[in-house]
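Q: Give me the 3D complex with nicotinamide-adenine-dinucleotide.
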Amino acid sequence: MTAKIIDGKQIAADMRAKLRADVAALAKKGVVPGLGVILVGDDPASKSYVTAKQKACEEIGIYSDDNRLSASISQKELMSHINRLNKDPRIHGILTQLPLPDTIDELEVLMAIDPAKDVDGFHPINVGKMVTGQKAFLPCTPHGVVQLLIKSGVKIEGADVVIVGRSNIVGKPLANILIQKSPLGNATVTVCHTRTRNLAEHTKRADIVIAAAGCPNTITADMIKDGAVVIDVGVNRVEDSTKKAGYRLVGDVDFENVKEKASLITPVPGGVGPMTITMLLYNAVESAKHAAGLLK
Ligand code: NAD
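A: Here is the predicted complex, encoded as C-alpha cells.
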C-alpha cells in the first residue's frame, strides 16, 4: 500500500479562507480581532516563527501588536508588557514566543496572561478546563493535529492511537483532547516516551500513530501496521550540503519507507506545521467573537 499524503498546506489554506470570511463579517460589526505578540531576544528560529505568525494575522485581517523585546529585559518589565496587553480592549489574544531567556521565570509569565486571552492554551486554567472537558482555548499544535485527522476523513472515535512524546505543548494535551467524550475525541490513547520499554510493541498495534519526539527516524516502517494513519509532528534539522542553508527539515518518521505501509501520512514540511498557526488564528478569532458577546 502506498499512503495518500495529507496536504496540511491545503487544509490550512481552506481553514484560513473561512477565518478570513469570519473576520470580514466581524469587521462589519465593528470588531477587529487583535493579537499581542511578545518576542524576547533574537533567537533566529523564534524570530522566524513570530514573523510567520504576524504575516498570517495580516493575511486574514487580524490586528497584531508587535513587542520585540531585548534579551536583557527584567521580569518586572516583561510583566508590565503582559499587563498592558491584558488590559487593552483591542487585544483578544496574547502570544509569548517560547522559549524565554533563562533569566525569566517562564511559568510566572504564562500565569500572568489573562486566561480569556490565552490563545496558546498554556495557562493552567485553560489546561484544567481542557482536561475536564470544558470549553477552553485548545493548544494550537495538538488541535491542529486533530483537525488534520478530521478533515482527512479519519475516524477518531474508537481508534487505537499511540502518541510518541509527552511534552506539555504536544503529547500531553493531544492525549487529553483525544480521550474526551467529544467529536474531537473518543479514542483509546497510549502515550509513549523515553522510558517506554518497547516502543514498537505499542506503535505496531495502533490505528493512528502520532510522532512528537523531536528525533529523526524515531518511527520506521517495521513499527507500523499496514494501513495505519501516521502523523508526524517532529521538525528536525539535518545537515544537507546540497541546500543553500546547509540543512533540510525532516520529521520524526522515516517518511519514504513508512509511506509504503501507511494509508495516510503527513509530510514534513507541509503537514502539521501550517495547521499550528491556523489554530492560533482560529483561537484569536474565537476570542474576539466571545469578547464581542457573539458566542455563548
Ligand atoms: P520535547 O523535546 O519537549 O518532547 C519530546 C518528547 O518525546 C519527550 O516527552 C520524550 O520523552 C519523547 N521522546 C523523545 N525521543 C523518544 C524516543 N526515542 N522514544 C519515545 N519517546 C521519545 O518536544 P516537543 O516540544 O513536544 O516537540 C516535539 C517535536 O515536535 C519537535 O521536533 C518539535 O520541533 C516539533 N514541534 C512541531 C510543531 C509544529 O508546529 N509542527 C509544534 C511543536 C513542536
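A quick observation: The pocket of nicotinamide-adenine-dinucleotide is lined by residues 141, 164-167, 169-171, 192-194, 196, 199, 212-215, 218, 233-236, 272-273, 276 (CB under 6 Å).
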